Amino acid sequence: MISKFDEIEVQKIRVNAILGLYPEERITPQDIIVSAKLYLDLTNAGQSDDLQDTVDYDSLHRAIAAMAEETAYLLIEKLADHAAQICLENPLVQACSITVEKPQALELADNIAITIHRSRK
Fold first, then answer.
1. pTM of the shown model
2. CATH code of 108's domain
3. Per the structure, how many domains does the chain have?
4. Structural domain range at position 38
5. Going residue by residue through the chain (121 aa), what tens digit of pLDDT does each one get?
6. SS3 per-residue string spanning 74-117
């Protein structure tokens, strides 16, 4: 089945940020990876060839990276929610999924990741 929305994916935005509960995480920045999937109608952009009819994903990825680097959240869930808010600032975006990864968080695992889903109310 085809979704009623088209998708834009910005995959694996890599930043170095303070994120976590533990004392060492509050001092030393660590690698954080954020991915965003946007759900919207790209019909107009496909017909007009005009950036105004879509999402400027260069600006979007820079805004998400800046937010991650400038904040110092305790939970990856909070960082993901803030990234979703940034995505939904564009009125064309109807919903988004955000994945945040902390590859250095767990000693016995390769990675920890969460994915959240947000939509317009």
1. 0.94
2. 3.30.1130.10
3. 1
4. 6-119
5. 457 899 999 999 999 999 999 999 999 999 999 999 999 999 999 999 999 999 999 999 999 999 999 999 999 999 999 999 999 999 999 999 999 999 988 889 999 999 999 998 7
6. CCHHHHHHHHHHHHHCCCCCCEEEEEEECCCCCCCCCCCEEEEE
